Amino acid sequence: MQEQFRYQKSAHAKGLCSFSAKIKDFSYGKHAHEEFSIGVTCRGRQDFFSNGAFHKSQAGNVIFFNPEQVHDGHAGGGKDMEYEMLYIPESTIMSLMQSIGNVSKDQSRLKVSSFHDAILQKQIMSIAHSMNLKQPLSSLEEEHLLLGIAHSIVRLGDGSFIDKVAYGRTDKLLEQAKEFIHFNLNRKLDIEEISSAANMSKYHFIRLFNKQFGMTPHQYVLSYKINRVKREVELGNSAADIAFKYGFSDLSHLNRNFKNTFGITPIQYQKQLSL
After folding, report:
1. Count of domains in the chain?
2. For residue 180, with 0-12 CB atoms within 10 Å meaning exposed, 13-18 middle and 19 or more buried, which class applies?
3. Domain, as residue range, for 246
4. Residue 43 has what DSSP assignment?
5. DSSP strand pairing (114-115 vs 81-88)
6. What is the pLDDT of residue 156?
7. Are 146 and 94 in contact (CB under 8 A)?
8. 3 state DSSP class of 31
9. How far apart are the C-alpha atoms of 1 and 167, rounded to whole Å?
10. Residue limits of the HTH araC/xylS-type domain (predicted)?
11. Measuring CA to CA, which residue among 32, 3, 2, 35 is closest to residue 18?
């Protein structure tokens, strides 16, 4: 096996980077990252020394290094090893965690460096995969994936989630944001635009929107688009034209999201309705 090291920076979030590696004989010296370094051992075994202990991360395990946590690393058992990592700036993940929970800097640090958690594993792989697509995610989609990782860190750490929100005039501001989404469905939206429509900071808006409507802004935008797509399909319009109209990167992107909601593709839906 030829050893490989591949970095890919985010098209939107400053400092966010994904990293994939295939190694057998290479060994990392002792080092530390300024960012949160969160990854998944995909194949083989990942051995490293950190926090006074020797760790053996089996395939499927999450690897979690806090900022400035010293560690080394190499493939274990004399076999090839593959893994994916995300380097997430501390300021980015802290802002997201504090939008959904009561979390201090110390509480954001996990005490274990290798563990199994199916939810966080899937979240890491989803964003790592998406950052290597030819067609990058929108900033809204990327923010949504990062929010999932922030949620998992709060869940696994010592922080707590915010349960209650006082609304008052917030309802009207959030409705303004929804109206902004409705009038701009034909283009890619970012969270700064939507939160500005509600006259709120980005992270405050994410927290209030999620509490008020039971989904993140990205989930709402996607859900609303898919329902508009369904209406257009029922009118007999071309699925390819609909995909372009509502800002999907291509027909397969539309098919995947439509199927997640309705179980079938738009074309299959049209055929069943004999349109």
Report:
1. 3
2. middle
3. 221-272
4. E
5. unpaired
6. 93
7. no
8. strand
9. 57
10. 175-272
11. 35
Q: What CATH number should be reported for the domain holding residue 264?
A: 1.10.10.60
Please state the pTM of the whole predicted model: 0.72
Tokens at 199, concatenated:
């006259």
Q: Nearest CA to 154 among 208, 103, 216, 93?
A: 103
Q: Phi first, then psi: what are they for 210, rounded to 5°?
A: -60, -40
25 to each of 95, 247, 257, how far by Cα in Å?
A: 38, 45, 41
Task: Centre a 10 Å sphere on the Cβ of residue 242 and count the other Cβ atoms it contains.
Answer: 22
Asked if 122 and 20 sit in the same domain, the reply is yes
CB 181 within 8 A of CB 247: no
pLDDT score recorded for residue 212: 82
Residue type, 178: K
Percent pLDDT > 70 in the chain is 97
65 and 135 together in one domain: yes
3-state secondary structure of 172: helix
75 pLDDT exceeds 60? yes
Q: How far apart are CA 87 and CA 197, in angstroms?
A: 31
Report the alpha-carbon distance of residue 190 to residue 269 in Å, rounded.
30
Helix, strand, coil percentages (3-state) for the chain, rounded to 5, are 45, 20, 35
* 66 and 46 belong to one structural domain: yes
DSSP three-state, residue 256:
helix
